[in-house]
Amino acid sequence: MGERETELVQSLADTQWRLNRIPGLEFGLFALGRMRYAERFAEIEDPQVRAALLDAHIFTVEGKHFSNLHRQEARLRRQHGQDLKELQGLQRQRQQEEEQTGKRATYATPNGFELLSPAKQPELPQSRERSDRLPLNTDNLSIPPVLVHSRVPQPKTSSGAGKSEE
Fold first, then answer.
1. Distance of CA 2 to the CA centre of its chain
2. Element (H, E) at 22
3. Tens of pLDDT, residues 75-115
């Protein structure tokens, strides 16, 4: 994976994180407004009407903050879309180059691991059936007897605990 692809993936993650925060910030604005303007509609007896009026008042008074949040959200969504489109284009281009050259690309990660291109990863052997697996040695484990497979012998104690009832 190229450096630009890595940058785009990081940008997508950062942008998504910011987008995910916006509803919480909106909620916070309303919560602050409810605290600040709680007494404004105290004479209204119907709690639903009072809440609706309070929310409308908060939205009107704090409109600049809500407007900024909505503008920021739109900007972030555009950025996310552009980054995603560019990343997908770079990935298609890289996959086409790999297919044409017949080479399997490996990618070094900062921690020293090398990753294979997803399209070219080798087939992994299928796991064996349960009957082919070796029994689990539970001598040194603190596992309740109910959770241990019935084929595995249970440790015997003087109180009779650990014996399986069959």
1. 24
2. helix 3-36
3. 999 999 999 999 999 999 988 988 888 776 565 566 666 55
Domain assignment of residue 146, yes or no: no
* Number of domains into which the chain is organized: 1
Cα–Cα dist 137/157, whole Å:
16
Average confidence (pLDDT) over 18-41: 95
Across the chain, mean pLDDT equals 78
Structural domain that includes position 78: 3-119
CA distance 91 to 5: 8
In a domain, 57, yes or no: yes
- SS3 call for 62: coil
Tell me the β-bridge partners of 116.
Answer: 106
Q: How far is CA 140 from CA 84, 134, 155, 157, in A?
A: 50, 17, 10, 14
Q: Is residue 151 in some structural domain?
A: no
Number of H helices, E strands in the chain: 3, 2
Looking at 61-162, which runs of residues are DSSP E strands? Answer: 106-108, 114-116
- Residue 21: inside a domain: yes
Token pair in block for residue 55: 């929310």
The percent of residues above 90 in pLDDT, for the chain, comes to 54
